[in-house]
Please model this.
Amino acid sequence: MPPVLELQNARISYFTRAGEINVVPGVSFKLEQGEALGLVGESGCGKSTVAFSVMNYLSGVGRLTGGRILFEGQDMSKMSAEALRKIRGGRMAMVYQDPMSSLNPVMPVGRQLMEVPVIHQNASQAEARRRALEMLGEVNLPDPESVFDRYPHQLSGGQQQRVVIAMALMSEPSLLLMDEPTTGLDVTVEAAVLDLVARLRDKHNSSIVFISHNLGTVVRICDRIGVMYAGELVEEGAIGEVFRNPRHPYTRGLLDCIPVLGSSKTSSALAPIPGQMPPAINRPKGCIFASRCKYVEAARCTAGPIDTTSVPDEVGHRVQCVRSAELPPREPPKPSGEAIVSKGNKEEVLNVDHLQKFYRQSPSIFAGGKAYDVKALNDISMMAKRGMTLAIVGESGCGKSTFAKVLTGIEQSTGGKVVLDDEEIGTQPVERRADAIKRKLQMVFQNPDSTLNPSHSIGYIVERSLRRLKRLGRGQARAEARKLMETVKLPAEFVDRKPRQLSGGQKQRVAIARALAGDPEVVVADEPVSALDVSVQAAIVNLLIELQASRDTTLIFISHDLSVVRYLADRVAVMYLGKIVEFGNVEDVYLPPYHPYTEALLSAVPIPDPDLKQKRIILEGNLPSVRDVPAGCPFATRCPRKVGQICDDVPPPELTTATGHRIACHIPLAELQRVDPVISRAAE
Amino acid sequence: MAATAIDSKKPVGALLRLLKRIALLRESPVGMIGAALVLFWILVALLAPLISPYDPNENYMDDFANLGPSMVYWLGRDNQGRDILSRIIWGSRIVLTVGPIATFCAYLVGCSMGLLAGYYRGWIDVVISRISDIILSFPVIILYLIIISQFGPSALNIVLAVTFIASPQVSRIVRGLTLELRERDYVAAAKMRGESAIYIMLVEILPNARGPLIVDACLRMGYTTIAIGVLGFLGLGLPPPDPDWGGMVKDTYTMMSSSPYMSLFPCMAISSLVVGFNMLADGLREISLRD
Model:
């Protein structure tokens, strides 16, 4: 029987005004029935292009310009449009990143599901309806009958993605292509969807091509992994072999720049890959990774095309590197020693005491109803010391960004106190804050594309901040701006560039320089690295740690990524629905006793290390609507360790340990302490 | 003080950007044709004293039986014996001064209204948007008639009328763009370093709205050209005898059956300029979508 999918030296190009751009020079791999292959790589590495070319769906500008793509032994490029139409959605299905754009917004989801059997299998309406309902149940959607008649916007993101997966599985495809199916989802929802995919895969014996930038998700789903770089499959093999014995320098680079849950800045280091991916239009003659590789050997690596060779003793492990056999065993990067700063008992810089932010929702003039409060922040208390990193973690809608807005004065608190150096700032809008406060507290934003004004030059952006915050003259500001550029490790010539001439990581560096202009005491960073590729992320995280150590700045680091938080933070606040459920030193929060929510979060984080064993706690249900947050514990509706009615009705007490670790839960501390750690090493 | 520092650098940068944008136009054939038409009329207006063969207001009474196009009068003469070519050439000056000035004024007022409404929202937005809605709810041509017949035909009044009528339309576009741009992180960053609202509106927001605004300004220049033509035709344009394309049509349309060329040529002048502006706008939109 031929493999389900086989790419034989597939060469893919895009045709633009600038001429042919060869984005994938030649990719070969095979996928057997029931096998799952993960394609990983940073943005622009061609992983989605490969998926679309398998579907023969490269839109008008892309084309397969060489090699063959065989689906069940048949050459896709020789098929008629009619034959392709039968295969797509029938024997081959695709799940995209954004479920909202894969679902028709004006059609109930059930009807959309029914289309699949009606079109592909000539099923009757009644039969199609029965199968659609069955499938909705199979993807763990509660109450399939009611979901059937709902429109996509009436479902949450996780539910939408389940519907899309249900649609893809309706026709029992032999090949399922998944392009970042969980990237837009919260980590607990992601875990549930991944769990579902793994279960359905066993049941239907489908072959999966799973595309992701997140190595951890691939470990959960796949048997084999393919690492792509600049359009080339540089390494491919069984998950365990590639992770334990990576033979390509790029694979090693990737592994070295992601923090694995459990590692911290004192126990390990992140090693970003230097340089940038070369543009596809200007491919070097030899190894495409040579310019960034630390093992490069001029003559052999850059002379000509690199062959793919097999790793001895490891079946199916292939590497595109001339030096793969000579590379020393991989050593995880060690901390340099500088990063370990003495964390003596520093003074308190920021104190948040019973902070509240309610948004009043007025009743509608026409529809009526009662006015109610949306409790975005409900009784938040925490404290940050000078030179320390306070991280705030939580899923979307937990109030972490609202907290940043109150700190920065974009929004005002409606109760409680935010004290910065003995001054109440929670009720002061940013326009009314004294210059001294503006200087003390600055912010780094999430989206590198909207953080810098595209109309201004980098120099102007940085100089303007220096002149406003430090009241420098123009000449002084210019000199100072160049120094700041150096501080954030950007070439000084960049001052003449426009933001669009910079990469995402470089933009984020400029944003950090801008925030540092007034020598702030506190920098609020709202997801500063989550829009960046992992190697860039590592570099920015390192920069933040370094700057913090040299300037004794307090960092308020807001993130949904528990691995980065574990790596970077000194103290952590875990938020859920506007409340802090757990707060303490980072070592304490990541080990028992856990709040049940923290435990579920930790168990959901995809870990890029097949040797780490993780407890599986799948949270069912959705976040409760903002209108009816439980009167008791906010987590009561989804908590796997719920005690009973008391959780719904009575706000939980705050349990405090000897080290100042706070947990808001009804379960006694002694019992929480008996819980096993979420992560353990398999070998031990 | 700070704002002037940027302004001193601005014109050069803006001009360079404009030149680059025009260079980009090469890739849009539609835009190139539009630019050529508009440029043609600008040159005609600039060189009017040099290229106009006759005095536009002089009545040439020789060979009065034969007013049609000839070797002497290329586009012929009108019923009063005035040379049509010269009148079109001189008439372009009116259109190309009153039009841009009026559009500019409409943009000045419209941008201010839109920025204030979009940036502050709340009651300021309500007041500005309702006033705009009221003005927009009147048929344009009736508004022109009321305003010009009330204040008398003159270049200044045309400018005022266009400003009054077009600025709510501009305000709407600018308001929409501002509502979106004010949520960008760089606006929050500007607030956090203590910038004034005026600075944020003019330096952080407005420059990033320029793409759609340049396209709209081009289209609006076309609309204004039509408006000036219509006003001239209705006798509400510039006072005679100065040549004005709309007025030329008005003076001669009664002769349409016997000597159609008399009104045809000024009509062609109007439409070529309007089409030129529209095609230029299309081209600009096309290239702005590309990058």
About this structure: Chain B touches chain A at residues 2, 5-6, 27, 184-186, 188-195, 204, 207-208, 210 (CB under 8 Å). Chain B has one domain: 25-44+85-290. Chain B has twelve helices and no strands.
